């Protein structure tokens, strides 16, 4: 079968047209992929910013309650129970307490049952707060009374009584509160310490 010059020209142009269409389609797909990646990066960044904002507000709120307690607790230790209980409820703590320089453990209600030989002065939260002479937030550790993993906010008293006031948050509550942020896509947020150690995940 012999093709005329016109047929050959049409066939050549058709081939070029198909090649051009394929090239444009490839470029469009590439551009779409780039746009999708950029949109995804924006969404991930926005999600992380929201998570950071929630964490900052959560930490700040609890830290301010512990600081205020350190300043405004009365000197009369016999009244501490009611004040610490109010702080526990207002701050969403599991337990708020004072470890005194005499080794006393004064707690919010309901109190945690401690071993007879328990000495708050030997606990990391007490020692760290005294060493820093300011507010500290511990890494997760097992609570002495139950073994439950908790995070503690603690700071030295500045009301004329020597000791440390502290509040515990169970790690399970940290996970529920901080890591339940809804995202546009199926994803998980993991809480990592400044040293890169994994602290909590869903």
Q: What is the CATH superfamily label?
A: PAS domain
Radius of gyration: 30 Å
CATH architecture: 2-Layer Sandwich
The count of strands amounts to 8
Which overall shape is indicated by the principal axes computed on the Cα atoms? Answer: elongated
The CATH topology turns out to be Beta-Lactamase
Q: How many strands, which pairing sense, and closed or not: the largest β-sheet?
A: 6 strands, antiparallel
On the 0-100 scale, what is the average pLDDT? Answer: 80
Structural class: alpha+beta
Figure out the total of helices.
4
CATH class: Alpha Beta
Low-confidence segments, given as residue ranges, are: 7-11
Describe the structure.
It is a single chain. The chain has a single domain, classed as 2-Layer Sandwich (Beta-Lactamase). The protein is 48% helix and 17% strand. With 202 residues, it is an alpha+beta fold. The chain is built from 4 helices and 8 strands, in the order H-H-E-E-H-E-E-E-E-H-E-E. The strands form 2 sheets. Strands 1, 2, 3, 4, 5 and 6 form a 6-stranded antiparallel sheet that branches. It has a two-stranded antiparallel ribbon with strand order 7-8. The longest helix is centred in the N-terminal third of the chain and has 68 residues, at 5-72.
Topology:
Blueprint: H1 5-72, H2 80-91, E1 95-100, E2 105-107, H3 124-132, E3 136-137, E4 141-142, E5 149-156, E6 163-170, H4 171-178, E7 191-192, E8 198-200
Antiparallel strand pairs: 1-2, 1-6, 3-5, 4-5, 5-6, 7-8
């Amino acid at each position: 079968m012999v093709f005329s010059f016109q047929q050959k020209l049409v066939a050549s142009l058709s081939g070029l047209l198909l090649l051009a269409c394929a090239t444009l389609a490839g470029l469009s797909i590439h551009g779409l992929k780039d746009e999708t990646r950029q949109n995804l990066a924006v969404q991930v960044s926005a999600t992380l910013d929201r998570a950071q904002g929630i964490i900052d507000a959560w930490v700040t709120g609890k830290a301010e309650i512990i600081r205020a307690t350190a300043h405004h607790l009365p000197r009369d230790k016999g009244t501490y129970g009611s004040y610490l209980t109010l702080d526990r409820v207002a701050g969403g703590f599991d337990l708020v307490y004072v470890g005194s320089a005499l080794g006393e453990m004064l707690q919010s209600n309901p109190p945690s049952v401690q071993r007879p030989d328990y000495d708050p002065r030997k606990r990391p939260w007490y020692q760290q707060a005294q060493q820093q002479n300011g507010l500290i937030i511990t890494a997760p550790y097992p609570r002495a009374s139950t073994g439950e993993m908790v995070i503690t906010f603690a700071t030295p008293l500045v009301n004329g009584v020597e000791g440390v006031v502290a509040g515990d948050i169970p790690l399970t509550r940290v996970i529920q509160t901080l890591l339940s942020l809804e995202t546009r896509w199926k994803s998980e947020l993991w809480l990592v310490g400044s040293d890169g150690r994994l602290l909590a995940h869903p």
